[in-house]
Every structure is written in C-alpha cells, then in structure tokens.
Amino acid sequence: MYTYMMKIPNHDDASSRDFIDIAKQIQDEDEIVLHFPFYIYCPDEKGDYGFWFIAERNHKKLCMFEVCLSEEKGVQKTAAQQVETRVDHGIVGDAHAGVWHRQISLLAQESVEPLKKLHGAVSNLVSENMERLNEFHIDIHTNDEIESIADAFVVMTKELDGYIRHLEDVTKEKERIGAELSLATKIQADMLPNIFPAFPVRKEFDIHASMTPAKEVGGDFYDFFLLDDDHLGLVIADVSGKGVPAALFMMMSKILVNNYALMGGSPAAVLEAVNTQICKNNEEEMFVTVWFGILTISTGKVIAANAGHEYPILKGADGKFALFKDKHGFVVGGMEGLKYKDYEFTLEKGGTLFVYTDGVAEATNLQEELFGTERMLEALNEDPDASPKQLLQNMQNAIDRFVGEATQFDDLTMLAIKLV
C-alpha cells in the first residue's frame, strides 16, 4: 500500500467543524472514496495530532490522506508535494483512540453505529422473532464490509427459516408414522393369543407364550388352537427379515397355517399346502421357518413337522430339559413342490415342551457373544418344574442379564406347554 501526502486548503472555521464534514469535502474535491475507521497519531513536538484517511481511487490502489489538527493552526494537510512512501498497514504510527476533542468520538460513531444496529437486530431476532425468520431484515447501507455482513446474515436467516420449516414437516411425518407403527404393534399383538390362562376350563394342560419384537412390529409369531376337544395345534414361526414387511408376511403366514390346520390333515400336509399357496405370489422371495405340532391331550402324543425351524426342547424322564433333534424340512416359501415329513414323540404327564425362535439363542451382548443353546438349557433347568409362564420369565431374565445394555437385534418369541 502507498501513502500520498496531499495539501488541504486552510479553513478558518476548521476548529469548530466535524471531521466527518472535512472528510466528505476531501472525498468530493479529490474524487476519492474514504474508508473508515481512521488512524490517530500521538501529538508531535508542535502539539499537532495527525489523522489518516484510508482512501481508494478507481478501485486500483489504496491511499492514506493525512489531516493534522492543532489548537493554533486549525486543520491542514501536510506537504504539498506528492510523496510516495511504503507503509505497513498494521503499524502506522502509534495509533490510539479517545485523545482529542469530541470530533474523535464522532468519527468512531460513524463506524460503530452500523455494528450496533447489526448487534441489536440479531439480539432481537434471537429473543423475540425466531418464529418470523422469513420477515427478518437489517436496514444498513454503509457500502462497505459491514453492509456485506448484514446482507449475508439476512440470507443465512432466510435459509435457516427454510430449514426449520422443512424440519417441522419431517418431524410431523415421523410422528404420524410413529403413531401408525404403534397402532400396527397393537394390531399384531391382538393377532396372537394373548389372554392367559388361554383355556381356563381345561385343567389337563397349562400353556403360555410371548413375542417381543426387535422393532415396532416383528416377523415372529406363535399360535395355539383347539382342533377338537382332544387335539391342540401348536405353532412357532420366524419370517425372514424384520419390521413392517416381515410383519405383513407373518400375518399372512399365520392365517394360512391356521386355516389349513382347521381343514384337517397332518402337520406335514398343512405345511405343504401353505408352501404351495405362498409360492404362488412371492415376488419378494420371502420365506418363513415353521414348527407345527398337534398334541393329543389325552395321551400326550405329539405329531409334528419342521420347516427349517429351531429344534424343540423337551423335559425328559430325568427331569431335565434337552434338545429334541427332529427332522428338518426346507423353509416354507423357499420353492414350489416341497414335501415335509411328520414325526412323533410323547409328552409325559408333568412334562413340558418349549419351542422358540432363533432370537433366543442368538441374543448378543456388547462383546458380540451369543447367548447360545447351552445358556438357554441352563436357564430352563434352573427350575425345570416351573409353570410355563415362569419358565418364559426365567428365560427372559437370563437373556436380559446376558445381553446387558446391548440393543436387541432380533425378535424373541417363546411358547411352553406343560401336561398336568
């Protein structure tokens, strides 16, 4: 940056005039643009004070115009000749403020006033007008950086208003979806038998079941229903996937199994019919694992078929729960034309059958360890003679202790029946 020393004509009344007026006269006479604030020098040996106006001509170079103030001399410019001196903008003289007459404060006010206006507008916006961001404006016309900052703040405020309105719309939509999912959760729960004791007039057996979805709605389901006075249908199933798609597929699968079972036929025949029906319209290629058994209540005989589901667990003659490794078929909905096989076992008086979905054995803790089959058997054998309701509660407690703070990632579904 270069400094130009240029003479100002003498002004008889300069001592009483504001420096702002003088600066405007310089601007008009020399066809320059003055920039604020001004730099103020300490007095020299003559008692003069020097003021430097930062100026610009034709947007090409910055100039410094010196104005001196003296009690005796009034106001004048320095030497008439043009002197070019390279000046470091950061260390021009020993600049300081508040040292001479009220004219100095007037010059400062010219620069500070727009900043005060900007600060006031922003403060008022935050305290009172956040709901009317789109109406926000700042009336500052200084033709400098302060005006640019004010304009930028107005633009930012309008963009913020748009963002907040969009966020409000998204929040309302999420609340609507949340309400619908909450209703879907209730509808799904109502689709499953959930009133216990389920058959209060039947004293030959005690049954209990639970389903805890990992999300608002899940893909697991259980079911039990009397086929006649001496036969009880038992179903536990796990649909591929989670959330709403799995829940829709689950409802369809449950209805199909129930309907075909009530029409008669062995468990294998029922699963074959359900598989055929699902494969007719399954473009999403979803599937469901199913264990379906029919209990003869009077004898304890169970005929069952397994479509890719977990092994059932029985309390044996020694009074301990153990896996019953049955014959597995392919999952329902996997391909057309599948055949399933029935198998049999007997549930003794005082014996208990426990069936479940893979979310039980595959419950995971923060160390990414699986709950596993062994821990599952240990939980059942803590109190093998417990009622079905207490057995399920014992299992849930054991899973909760193992999982700790880890997030549930799969549905947990269990069913237990005990012959009395």
- Total strands: the figure is 17
Mean model confidence by pLDDT: 77
Rounded to an integer, what's the Rg over CA atoms? 44 Å
- Write down the overall geometry: elongated
Q: Strand-residue fraction?
A: 15-25%
Order of helices and strands: EHEEEEEHHEEEHHEEEEEEEHHHE
Strand count, sense and barrel status of the largest sheet are: 6 strands, mixed
Cα(first) to Cα(last) distance is: 102 Å
Share of helical residues: 25-40%
Structural category is alpha+beta
How many helical elements?
A: 8
Give the low-pLDDT segments: 1-19, 30-108
Task: Provide an overview of this structure.
The chain is elongated and about 100 Å long. Helix 7 crosses helix 8 (388-403). With 420 residues, it is an alpha+beta fold. The protein has helices at 19-30, 101-128, 145-191, 243-262, 267-280, 358-361, 372-381, 388-403; strands at 2-4, 33-40, 49-57, 61-70, 74-77, 84-86, 205-212, 220-228, 231-239, 288-296, 301-307, 313-315, 321-323, 328-329, 343-346, 352-356, 412-419. A hairpin with a 5-residue loop joins strand 12 (313-315) and strand 13 (321-323).
Keywords:
alpha+beta; 36% helix; disordered N terminus; 5-stranded antiparallel beta sheet; 420 residues; 6-stranded mixed beta sheet
Task: Draw up the topology in text.
Elements: E1 2-4, H1 19-30, E2 33-40, E3 49-57, E4 61-70, E5 74-77, E6 84-86, H2 101-128, H3 145-191, E7 205-212, E8 220-228, E9 231-239, H4 243-262, H5 267-280, E10 288-296, E11 301-307, E12 313-315, E13 321-323, E14 328-329, E15 343-346, E16 352-356, H6 358-361, H7 372-381, H8 388-403, E17 412-419
Parallel strand pairs: 11-14
Antiparallel strand pairs: 1-6, 2-3, 3-4, 4-5, 7-17, 8-9, 9-10, 10-11, 11-15, 12-13, 12-16, 16-17
Helix pairs in contact: 4-5, 7-8
